Structures are given as structure tokens and as C-alpha cells.
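Human: My hope is that you can spare some time for a protein that puzzles me. I am handing you a single protein, as its sequence and its fold in C-alpha cell form. Could you go through the record with me and say what the backbone is doing? Take your time, and here it is.
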Amino acid sequence: MRQQSDKERLQELAQFLRTRRARISPIQAGFPDSGKRRIPGLRRAEVALLAGISVDWYTWLEQARHIQVSAQVLEAIARALQLDFHERRHLFLLALQQFPADQPLAGSAISPTLQSFLDQQGASPAYVTDERLNIVAWNRCASFIYGNYEDMSARERNSVWRTFTSPYVRELLRDNWENHARHRLAQFRASYANFTGHPWWLDFIGELSRTSAEFQMWWQQHDVLSGPEGLKIIYHPTLGRLTFNQLSFVVTDAPQLTVTINVPANIDETAEKLRSFQS
């Protein structure tokens, strides 16, 4: 049964490569226009040339042969075939049966539609984080509750850094700070698995380890976690005790971004207090 499963997987990989190759014109790939071709797209030899691998090796992949292929070769093929984020992950899943160790995606630009969605959350603090847990977008309520993000440096807008270094955050969470900090660190550790050895992560981890004894100690425990915190209780200096249920989801067309919304858990108390700040 396992052999049959592998056979079908390799056939799926071969068909996927052929369809991706067929959609790219020689001009798109940087080759001169040599006139009409018998079949659309690139030739196998051209893909192999662009990827820096042998023609035989690439041909075997399109023939669904059972060969060992490295992540480096797959990255080269993904570039040659101009695969997007989703297609690249699909390629790795078919070839290696695992997702790639993604490098940071270029930029964390927020679309006007996503920013509008955040703004429409009204009395629910809402923000967006990237794969490094940097807060890259927020609504007015989030800035009022958690601090003025506009005035923060890029490092201060990293939610892990701020959790472990900000006295304001400690006072905001009080007795709940340790649970929150451990949860945030476990999320960060789970994301780090995709970027092990990357210079930004190594520099950040080293600097925060020197700055926070708690971070240094808990980092060594290798706890990993994903998902929201559930019920969240904070103590705002103006509004007092607030309770939220936390909801998080990935942005479909920007999978490096996660939207988090803190929905008031007590409509008569928390929601009313938050509405008062807007009036």
C-alpha cells in the first residue's frame, strides 16, 4: 500500500512539474524568442539549465522515477519555474513529503482591505503579526490598549521582545504575565523551526537572552505551541480589568501574516468600557 502511495505521489509531482513548465514562455524565462515551438512552454533542458542541474536529473523527476532530491535542488527548480508561495510548498510536499523551511518572505505589506478589516473591528483590539511575531498592522483599539505602536521602534513592535522587556506589558498582565510570556515564547519557538540558523533569528535570540533572564531560561526548555491564548485578562491603567476571547487566523493571500482579534468576553463590562474610549 505504501509503494502504491509513493507511486501516485511521484506521478502527481511529475504532472505538476510538466504543467508548470508548459505555462512559462522562453521570453519569460530570459531565453531569446526562436519562433513557434512544437509544444508550449520551456523545454526540459531549459529548466535544467535555469536550475543548474543535469537534464537527466530533471527528466527523471518528470518521469516519476523514485530518486532522492535535495531541498536545494527543489529551491532551484522552484525559481526556474517561477513558482509562487503555494506552488513552492506544494512542490516540497510532493517531492519530500514535508514543507520547505521558508525564508522570510519579502516584506509584510498590509493591503488596504486588511487594514480596513482591522479598523472595522471597533471595540475589539485587532492586529497583524508576521512570521517573526512583529506587529505590522493594528487598529485604534489595539493601540489604545497595548500601547501606541506608531511611537515604537521596529524592535519594540516585536511582540516577543516587548513581552519580555516592557514594564507596561507586565503591569497590563500582572499575575497572568508568565503564562502569556511562555505562550508567546512557545509560538516564537515553533516559528523558529522554519528559520533555524537564519542571522536575524540568531541575533534576536542572542540579544533577548542577554536582556531577559526569563527568556534565556525558558528558551532552553524548547516548548512549542501555536494558536491563540484563549481567555485573556488584562488590567488597563484607564479602563481597569478587561477580559477577551482571542481569535487568530492566517491571511489566505499572505500566509506569512496572522490576524489576531481580541473579542470582549464580557459584553456588559469589557465591551462597554471599550466603547466608552471611542466616544
